Amino acid sequence: MAGTALGMATTLVGSALSVASSAAREEMGLLLGVQDDIWFISDELKMMQAFLRAADGARETTGVLKAYLELIRDLAYDIEDCLEEFMVFIKHKNLVQQLLSLRARHRIAVQIRILKQRVQEVSQRNLRYNAIKLTPSTSSDFRVDMGLTQNLAALYVEETQIIGLDKQKEKLTKLITKPKVLEKLEASKSGPRVISIVGMGGLGKTTLTKKVYDSKELGDMFDTRAWIAVSQSFDPKELLKEMIKQLFGAYSLKEFLEEHQGQVLGVRHLTDHLRTRLKERRYLVVLDDVWTIEAWNCIYLSFPEHSKDDSCVVVTTRNHKLAEHCSPPSHIHQPEILEGKDARSLFLKKTNKRPDDLENDDRTKEIVGKILNKCGGLPLAIVTIGGLLANKDTKEWENLYNQLPSELATNPSLEALRQVVHVSYNHLPSHLKPCFLHLSLFPEDFEIERKHLVNRWVAEGFVTNATSRTLEEVAESYFYELISRSMIQPSKLDVLGNVKTCRIHDIVHDIAVSISSQENHVFLVEEHTSATSTSTESIRHISCFTKWKLNSAMDFSRVRSLTMFSKPLQPIASLCSYEFKMLRVLDLKNGEFITEQQDIRNISMLLHLKYLHFPCWYSHIYALPRSIGNLQSLLTLDIRKSAVSTLPTEITKLHNLHSLRCSRIQNDDRAGVYFRRSDYGDWFCDALSLTGLANHDTRNDANADLHGAVSSCWSYSSGIKLPKGVGRLKQLQILEKVDIKRTSRRTIEELGELTQLRKLVVRGRGASKKKCKAFGEAAPKLSSLRSLNVSTKDYVREAGVLDMLVSFTSPLPCLERLKLKGLLQQVPAWVGECVSLVKIDLKYCKFKELGALAQLPNLIQLRLFEDAYDAEKLVFCRDEFPKLRILRLQHFRRWPLTREVTFEQSTSPNMETIYIKNYPLTSGINGIENLPKLKEVYIEGGMLAKQDMLKEEAGRHMNHPVLQIQRCLPPITEESEATVEVTESISEQGESSQS
């Protein structure tokens, strides 16, 4: 485990060195008589850093070395903690006088001198015990180019699907689609057919099943489908809710929950609902990664005893007994390991090599054969090792081969695979190791957002800045490096091919948890965790997967991050205390609980906080405390879905803030129905908080709604009023949502000073002309802006913020995403000059023509919602939309004016997907044969003329695109045009049933 200690020590020493260098330059250090000591510590850290670089190339991993590296790691933690505390104190003017007192001066001086003494002792230990002989490093850690790794990420999604799985796919598909040969066997058993796919982790069970699940053949056969990730520990109720959502739609789940509102919703309610609705449907459900027979029995109750013919459940598992329990022998499939040619093809793909490279180099060919022999045909092992060896020379391949466990060649057991992945971890560059271990904080099978992960890495101090890039951009390069090395798996991609979410393979996750636990780095609170199961003296990170109560006997003084995935058994306010004085990350994003106003009253005690994310679940918070300004180190503040309507002036003191995301949750402004004057509202807020007539949750809910409504003057906007002085937040990169109406004109003008801003979300409903003009003058100054989202009133014509967009004096050169909601009527001319635009969403704009949008050279996705386009014909003319791949036309409330969509010759040469919903296309869709790369056409609801002709054109198309037409009314004749208004209600009913 010396490699683990080395990686952590290297990262922490680098982080501590950065803090020490900053502290040494502070004049207060001279005043306290410790400046020389801090400089000494800084110089010693530089020597330690050089030592660790040399240690990274050493082959010896003795117990002495491991112990020495752990000393360095712990010392670096303590140095950073002490000096950051020193830096935080001197930044607070109201505390300077305290520092000048004799007691404070003495305490700080003693702490720093003790650290100096420890540094000296650690340095002497290496000489005394000769922990390592410094030799030239043979490591060739590399940092993958951003563009290259993004392409690799997109490739990873399909790589194992296209190599060596065709025969297995065919076999599994026959099991699912051709059950008649097994009728005698099936007759003796009620319920749906159950097919089990069993094998060890990393064998490719999920990959194979996913390829079959996504095939067109299965898509046409079943009425509804669902893919459910089960994992070792799952919540039956949440799993069944997810099944309802996937099988019948999110709206169906919402209706079901509303019907049972006020009741104690149990598993029985959910299973009964599923059994009833599935009885008359032909369904396919995949249960991925089922671990126990008990788990299977719980889920199986959801399926009706007498399912419709051909309904099928597919189970993937590592447990052979479970497979035999679920399925008869003929319905059990064991994926095969990759043989010779297929294994080599996959390995070469991951290492960026060609077959010719092996034929022309006997040495390389020999080492490839040896590596593949030891990988034993396991796809995960091949992909992991292949990703590790990419862009490295043959010598390094040989070095790595010598470290692979020999037992993998003859006994590809789970433990052997763990060792293979562990080798990959040990070969990660030092800057990636803490990033990888950080993934252990997330539950198994959890889908992790890239941006969430990146912001956390920055807050944790895992990222060192580069002169030409932001911390977040450097962190993203780390993220893609881990993908290129196959340590994490891309899950969802955006239209640009960037990874939106990722997952970590179960085995890889197990290894991350194992390493983190052995290093006493992470404390995971799971179902059977004991408060005394591990020493918390040096725990730095806590992650709660289940309900847990903090033990007063535990030491939390060194904890740096606290992550919640469940409801705490004590108030959140107890976390905002001096017990967590060194906390840098408080991440409640995925906690399924409601935060109260009193929970954040002591948030200012967490002076080292860099990342603060309140739950996305819901919040009763209606005001940030003024003491929020004390959190001088804060980088990320996310308080969306709260009742906060106004930010305090003290927020402008947070000069290091990178991301400020605030929005009011919109509850149809229920409070505004009852109260129109703020004085009555305030009185009612106070009275309600004292009365016992309502239960606790109801009082807090109403209290938050009323406070939010009163403070916003009954505004319907989801935006937030910004305080004067926001222009001082020079590091800000993300700002949402700004309420232009309630924010002062002077403050709106200050927005133009935020030159580092990457994303801006604005709500301009009801804003005055002066404020709209101020925004129109400020926005063009945001030269780094990549995403702009501007919304105003839906239908009513008002000279507002969108009108100011037309008068922009210059384009936004870096703009990639643009969302406009409100009446605009013409495309602003400057939009045509935004050559970086790749995604545009429009709503209520009522454009008569798309104008400048058609000539955008990099536009990939265009989505037109609800009256965005307001003409009878939508024609894509010759040489327009050169890069457009995705077109979405969608209406909800009523049918639009458009009756025809036409694609002329030589238009949209890259168009792949067309999605049209609730459009009365009485003249049909014409010219799809002019779209050479077309893959999919989906038409749902509304009306569609010339359906047979469209099907014929799709059939003749050289690409054979998928054509799906659902719930479209028959073609309309001229005589029936007058019935359009009547049939609109039919369209709305169709939408409701779909949801």
TrEMBL record:
Its keywords, alphabetically, are: Coiled coil, Leucine-rich repeat, Nucleotide-binding, Plant defense, Repeat, Signal
The protein's GO terms of the molecular function aspect are:
ADP binding
Domain NB-ARC, chain residue ranges per copy: 179-355
Residue ranges constituting the Disease resistance R13L4/SHOC-2-like LRR domain according to the UniProt record: 559-663, 716-962
List this protein's GO terms for biological process. defense response to bacterium; innate immune response-activating signaling pathway; plant-type hypersensitive response
Q: Which residues form the signal peptide?
A: 1-24
Residues of the region (Disordered) are 976-995
Q: Which family does it belong to?
A: Belongs to the disease resistance NB-LRR family.
Name the chain's protein: Uncharacterized protein
The record lists the organism as Setaria italica
